[in-house]
Amino acid sequence: MARETRFALLTLGTAVLAFAVVVLGGYVRLSNAGLGCPDWPGCYGHLKVPESLAGTSGFERPLETGKAWKEMVHRYFAGALGLTIAGLGFIAWRRRQEDGQAVALPLMLVALVIFQALLGMWTVTWLLKPLVVTAHLLGGMATLGLLVWLALRQGHLLRPVAEPGPWRTWALLALGVAVLQVLLGGWTSANYAALACPDFPTCQGQWWPRTDFGQAFTLWHGLGINYEGGILGNPARMTIHLTHRLGAVLTLLTVGGLVLALLYRARSARVRKVAGVAGMALLVQAGLGIANVVFGLPLSVAVAHNAGAAILLLSLVALNHVLRPKTRPVPEPAAARSSVTGLESA
């Protein structure tokens, strides 16, 4: 097996670990365990959850063992992911002189995972500040997406094809819209606005209730505030929820339109298959979003919705990959090379 392919498989395995970290992070957030350990990187001053707070001082928050273990398991997985990505960066740097070895993207991932660690620390020390929580979610999704992109571009796991048409631009636009929707979803969750509209398709019995965009999207409320449970009023939370619904409609139109167009007009069977996977992920994600509202945000459905967002993003990353053939230098014809050589020798 070629070194390039082995590196791609190692990167893909790291992406699986990153997916687990994203899902665990969603589970911690949605089960209200984000402050299960009020310090970082340990838990009440220990590397594992203590059995009691006897002998510890300086912690006002009471120990809730179940929530604390959820938080620490997520940290263990995140730590393992950070070490694995650091290993990828080290391997890439050692092989930087080899033809075909990606270097810039692995090193970018190392920088990103370090920043993710800082966001994880600030999530706790800044008491679940929505801006930091949302940025932490987006950073996790970015780490996952870049790992999959690196694996696909580095190896031969899903070969790109030359597909004529406007699909590359449309696919990139669809990915951007999906990222924006993930951002809105994170903001909805971080501000505890998922149940601000408990009915569907209306919101508290109205198609457009009273809103408050000024408060809904104020990014900075200051430090020293405990954001657990949310601090916004009902109109602001409804505004966030409604904006997320509008984003879902935009995502359905953009991604769904691309999928249908590719299924009917793409020449390559490989492109149609990847588009079909993206279409299925989109439909499942839309159904999970509606189920969250109709059934009152059950934890299993909410976590699945978080995982579904990651799967939808990855399917769009794969679609962008398969529509973007690698550009390689065109080899110089043999006749031209021999004539140049003859001139140089003369």
TrEMBL record:
Pathway: Porphyrin-containing compound metabolism. It is a multi-pass membrane protein. It is found in: Membrane. The chain crosses the membrane at residues 7-28, 76-93, 105-125, 131-152, 172-190, 246-264, 276-297, 303-323. Keywords: Cell membrane, Disulfide bond, Heme biosynthesis, Iron, Membrane, Metal-binding, Oxidoreductase, Transmembrane, Transmembrane helix. PANTHER family: HEME A SYNTHASE (PTHR35457). It comes from the Bacteria. Pfam families: COX15-CtaA. This is Heme A synthase.
